[in-house]
Structures are given as C-alpha cells and as structure tokens.
Design a protein that fits this description.
27% strand, Rossmann fold, six-stranded mixed beta sheet, alpha/beta, 13 strands, single chain
Length: 354
C-alpha cells in the first residue's frame, strides 16, 4: 500500500464554496478512503443445547470463526457520496466501524485521509464522524445544547467557529428552541437531527452514515436527505452511506458498493447496477378499454391508477411493446427499468441460490 500524504488542513465555511485547495487536482487525485483486502473475523462460542453442554462449556469452550468482512477493496475520492448496500449481516456496519477506528481489522489495510483508523489518532478523529441511526450519542437527560458545548470542548473547536457552525446547523435543520429541551423529551426525528448537529460541529471531512433515516417518517427522511446533499455540496465532504431505504441511495448516491456475506458484489454507478443484474423491465400500459386483459403479454405486477404494470424479460421488452401497440387499443405505453430495491433483492437472491 503506497503512502498517502495527509491533505493540508482546510477551513470550509458552510455559507461559502469549497476552498481552492479542496478544488485542486492534487487533492482530488488522492483517495479520501483506501481499503485494501480488509478483513474482520469474529470468534463466537458454539455449543449444543442442554444442561450438560452448558457445564462442559465452562471448562472447554468451542469457538467458531465468523467472517464478517472478507478481503474487500475499494477507493473513495474527496467529495464522493457512495452508497454501501447489503442485507442485514452483510458486513456494512462492521466495515464502517473499522474505518472509523472502533474495530481493529483482522487483516488487510485501511487509510482514511492518510491515517490508519485503528490508531485512533486525535488528528484523525477530528476529521471524521460516524452517525448511526440506531445509536444515541448525546446525553439523554440534558438539553442538546449542553451536549453541543461538551463536544466543542472535546474537539477543541475555537469558540467563534463553534458558534457559527452550531447556529448554521440549527437553522438548516430548523431546530429552533428544541435544542434547549432534554433529549429524552424529543421525538425520534428531532433526536436524529440533534445527533447530526452534534456530529458535524467539528466540520468533519469524512462522514460515515449508518442508517441515518431509520425509523423516521417519510417527510423527515426527505428533509435529512436534502440536508446531507447540501452539506456535501457546501463542504465537499466525503460520505459513505448505508441505508435500507433505496430512496436515500437514489437521491444521494451516483455510485454504490454492494456487499453480501462480507464480499463486494458490485462497485460502480447506481445505473450500472440495473444494467448488470436486472433481467426484466416494466411495461406500463394504459388501455382505452380498461376491462381488457394482458396476461398473455407478461406478469401483471400491479396497477398505477389507470396504468397496468407488466414485468417482462429485458430482451423481450421491445417485441412485447410492439405487440401491444398492434394488438390492443393503447392510450399510453412506457418501458421502464425495475425499481432499484427490486434489483438489489434480485442480486441477493442470486447470490443465495449459488
């Protein structure tokens, strides 16, 4: 693994554009995140059921090796927003924890901003943030504003910079006086926004987002997606995002990495995922006679108002569309790629079958 020089510290204000250094070619040609054959193996106790087995395990414990992440490699460049996709247990959170320094890898290497995450160097921790949608980082019984002040001290943020960043984040997320209420009295969506403010006060250059919109209503999910996109555009921060909500990925990520059983199945553009793994297309048909039937043309998978939705083989889509136009009284017809979440499910189903 070649040595990567640490970029010159930058001062990026939320209300301005990225500094010239961040826009420079040398900066952009240096990956913000480099992962080379990164592996994490957990050893867990394994025993049979029953009292006798429990007693035996007290003196002789059989351990089982579980590969959570297996020899994955990728690079992410400054300013990229990359989706990190996979089912539960695929290794997503384990990877993010290794990149943020919470877990030590079993083998392989990782560099983030030129630092080895597992060393947990202060200069490194001041430049990253890990936001987990199912974890509380702020103190539960005190107002969020007090926790923000604590974070200012932990990260040694200059007072003027702290107040400017804090106030801009509070305004962007429309928090108002909520910051003065105890965290335990806030709704889930309000707490999540507070967590984001607390995690961004030190203006991190790399964000690891693990299910940031989990459990939130649709409106709140949309607001957080807009905020993340805005933060990336204003600061050129690098973002690695995991989410089970495909709307998050489609709205924020041009590139996705798909991981399953600890291994990478796909690394490329989101649109390329459809091209590579999808075997079907969806034909939407509006008929002049709404009682007409279309079962002989493909699998009827639903209805969108007056439009009937047919799933057909990708290679047959054009031919079937031509048949429909010539054999039925068609008011409207569209040919569409399947939804991204459907493609992801197909990827995992194929992998499980093999």
């Amino acid at each position: 693994m070649p040595h990567v020089l640490h970029p010159t510290p930058l001062h990026v204000h939320f209300h301005g554009k990225a500094s010239p250094e961040r826009q420079g070619t040398s900066y952009l040609n240096t990956p913000a995140i480099q992962v080379d054959r990164l592996t994490k193996i957990f050893y867990v106790p394994e025993r049979e059921a029953g009292l006798a087995a429990s007693i035996r395990s007290l003196v002789w414990r059989k351990m089982k090796a579980v590969k959570a992440v297996e020899a994955i490699s990728f690079e992410i460049y400054p300013g990229e927003v990359v989706g990190f996709l996979g089912p539960n247990g695929a290794g997503k959170t384990t990877t993010l924890k290794m990149l943020s320094g919470l877990l030590f890898p079993t083998s392989g290497r990782a560099l983030v901003l030129g630092h080895t995450p597992s060393k947990r160097e202060k200069n490194y921790l001041r430049q990253i943030s890990l936001i987990m949608g199912n974890r509380n980082q702020l103190a539960w019984d005190i107002p969020a504003m007090d926790s923000f002040d604590l974070n200012r001290a932990v990260y040694s943020i200059p007072p003027d910079q702290y107040r400017q960043t804090r106030d801009e984040l509070i305004e962007l997320l429309e928090l108002g006086d909520l910051v003065r209420k105890p965290v335990r009295n806030l709704s889930l969506g309000e707490r999540m926004k507070m967590e984001i403010v607390g995690s961004l006060l030190h203006r991190p250059k790399v964000l690891f987002l693990d299910e940031p919109t989990i459990g939130l209503d649709v409106t709140m999910q949309r607001r957080l997606r807009r905020f993340i996109a805005d933060y990336n555009q204003r600061t050129s921060a690098t973002v690695l995002l995991t989410s089970h909500y495909m709307a998050d990925v489609a709205a924020l990520c041009k590139r996705v990495i798909v991981i399953h059983h600890g291994q990478i199945l796909h690394d490329g553009e989101l649109s390329g995922l459809v091209d590579r793994f999808s075997t079907t297309k969806t034909i939407g048909v509006v008929l002049e006679d709404p009682n007409d039937h279309l079962h002989e043309y493909g699998e009827l998978i639903g209805r969108d108002g007056p439009k009937l939705l047919l799933r057909v083989p990708k290679t047959e889509a054009s031919r079937i569309a031509a048949r429909l136009l010539s054999e039925r009284h068609v008011a409207d017809l569209t040919i569409e790629e399947p939804p991204i979440d459907e493609v992801i499910e197909t990827v995992f189903a194929q992998e499980k079958a093999t």
